[in-house]
Design brief:
The complex is a heterodimer. Chain A is mainly alpha-helical. Chain A has a domain of 99 residues. Helix content of chain A is 81%, strand content 0%. Chain A is built from 7 helices and no strands. In chain A, helix 1 packs antiparallel against helix 2, helix 3 packs across helix 4 and helix 6 runs antiparallel to helix 7. The radius of gyration of chain A is 19 Å and the shape is globular. By secondary structure, chain B is mainly α. Chain B has 2 domains: 100 residues, no CATH class; 52 residues, no CATH class. Chain B is built from 8 helices and no strands. The termini of chain B are far apart. Classes of the chains: A mainly alpha, B mainly alpha. At the A-B interface, helix 1, helix 2, helix 3, helix 4 and helix 5 of A face helix 1, helix 3, helix 4, helix 5 and helix 7 of B.
Amino acid sequence: MWNLFVAFFKIGLFTFGGGYAMLPMIQREIVEKQKVCTEEEVLDYYAIGQCTPGVIAVNVATFVGYKLKGFWGGAVATFAVILPSLLIITVIAACLSSFSSYPAVQHALAGIRVAVAVLVFRTVCQLYKKNLRSFFAALVFLLALIFSLVFNVRSVYIVVGAIVAGILFGTVRRAKK
Amino acid sequence: MIYLELFLSFFKTGLFAIGGGLATLPFLYEIAASHPDWFTAEMVADMLAVSESTPGPIGVNMATYAGYSAAGVTGAVTATLSLVLPSFLIILLVAGFMAKFRENRFVDDAFLGLRPAVVALISVAFLEVLKTSLFHVESFLASKNFAALFDIPSILLFAALLCVSHFFKKLHPIVFVLLGALVGIIFKF
């Protein structure tokens, strides 16, 4: 339980820029270090977090915690991931309301954004290798990319569409056999 | 009773904001309009700036900030927990459901389509990160000068960190974040 708390506290503390920036941290802390979830499972949690209400990062934390230690695991992971925000933002709101306009903060952030881009790039490459092996997967990937980038379709609809496509594909494949 | 009102407002935000942190933004403007004594619409922009420049999920950061300006530390805790509560309950339900139906073939099939689609959504998010961190799209559109599009120092840092990550595969993501911050401050990015 303590490990779970520490892992998600770290994830909350070092994630800049929301949900997807958290993926490399989760990969390292939860998949590689503690080996409690597989990469596929984390991806599934992201998919579900995407189409359920609420902040994606928090949804993923609840999911992982629940899987490991049931209800209280979910509660601990959720609390741990929001605790750094709670502490840091309260301090900033109380005494540093001009925090984000300090030059040093802005320089640091510009650098951090580049670092996050590198981390997410690495994760995305891993995901390509593992998840786009079949023709069907590559097709769904391309369609989702086009719908999102070109037609600005909202993620919820893309996720729902992908679920329908998956079920249709699976059913047809079984019928052929 | 301000805490009850805070609870209701942020519970509603957490329940209806689907698709991540920025989806909470319209709800915050709504709250600002109905409770101008808590915070104003102008303050929402400041909250967003602070939330984006501090660690943690953006939606959570904004709720904490909004709650604090409405009712101090207790307000911050109330707003944050209320925001998280609906998704917490829903995820517990979904997780319980999945544990039960993981063997179901339809659930299995659904994930066949779901995984590549999520990889696509993550790629889109990555492109967004790339756009804001390595390129000056706005100054390019304003000046029509192709050279203005590229943020050369950032692109160099990107390449350098990519090399580092290639040769030191075991390096923790935190190291990259700290390196990025350090280089950013030293070279005034």
